[in-house]
Amino acid sequence: MSRCWTSASLLLQCRRIHTVAPCLKNKTGAEHRWLERHFNDPYVKKSKKQNYRCRSAFKLLEIDEKHSILHPGLHAIDCGTAPGAWAQVVVEKVNATGADPAAPVGFVLGVDLLQISPLEGAVFLPHANIADPDTQKRIQELLPKGKVDIILSDMAPNATGIRELDHQKLISLCFALLDLAPHILHPGGTMLCKFWDGKDSHLLQKKLKQDFREVRTIKPQACRKESAEVYYLARSYKTKHTT
Ligand SMILES: C[S@@+](CC[C@H](N)C(=O)[O-])C[C@H]1O[C@@H](n2cnc3c(N)ncnc32)[C@H](O)[C@@H]1O
């Protein structure tokens, strides 16, 4: 049970109880260890203080601080957006609410298999599988300019615990996004996608290098050390002709 979302029900039980100690009662050893690590995690504490929906906000903030991928006025799609911490960061950085009247106003579309609580400045497409052609059609309809400047993906399929299988499932999702890119990404655009490292990572990297002029591998400090989670940041999307 290492992924933030698969542990949501555990956390919900704890929030109902309000304190950690009684919450640890009647838990299995693995649940106990996960909850203890979660409540002691400095990024979890920071996310509560700064009102982010999830600790993953700090991964995107860190990537943006180092690589400047988000600017006011950008149009962005956030794939695997629930519970919405990345969307919170993106809304602010692209000025999607128009909070800064002197800066251009951006746009944020978040897509997820799950329900997502509303967020001012973001349009959400819940209960939607990114790999489904109907979702892809709906995305194109929802984009004000038909295309975006940046595709973000923090998607994570439900983990089976079988590392190689989970790796392949996530790599397939990234490939599904690359198939969608010609239809929704402006030439010159950026793609940031999470993957779990494994034997097929190089295939994804190879395809990204064909489609983008610059590809980097990034492991933010906010990623848990024991996690296989890594990101590819691909910039300068090459012109693609769609039929
Ligand atoms: C780690 S969470 C994302 C956390 C998010 N970046 C945040 O900051 O709140 C991964 C999300 O990917 C979503 N997901 C997994 N497979 C998906 C798919 N095929 N289409 C859309 N979303 C998917 C899951 O439902 C889950 O909410």
Describe this structure in words.
The protein is α/β, with parallel strands linked by helices and 243 residues long. The protein folds into two domains: 8-40, no CATH class; 57-237, 3-Layer(aba) Sandwich (Rossmann fold), CATH 3.40.50. The protein has helices at residues 8-17, 20-23, 29-40, 42-49, 57-67, 85-93, 133-142, 163-184, 201-211; strands spanning 75-79, 107-111, 122-125, 148-153, 185-196, 212-218, 229-237. Strands 3-2-1-4-5-7-6 form a seven-stranded mixed beta sheet, with helices on both faces. Strand 1 (75-79), helix 6 and strand 2 (107-111) form a beta-alpha-beta unit. The longest helix has 22 residues, at 163-184. The structure holds S-adenosylmethionine. Residues 4-5, 53-54, 56-57, 79-86, 111-114, 129-131, 154-157, 173 line the site of S-adenosylmethionine. S-adenosylmethionine (SAM) binds at residues 4-5, 53-54, 56-57, 79-86, 111-114, 129-131, 154-157, 173.
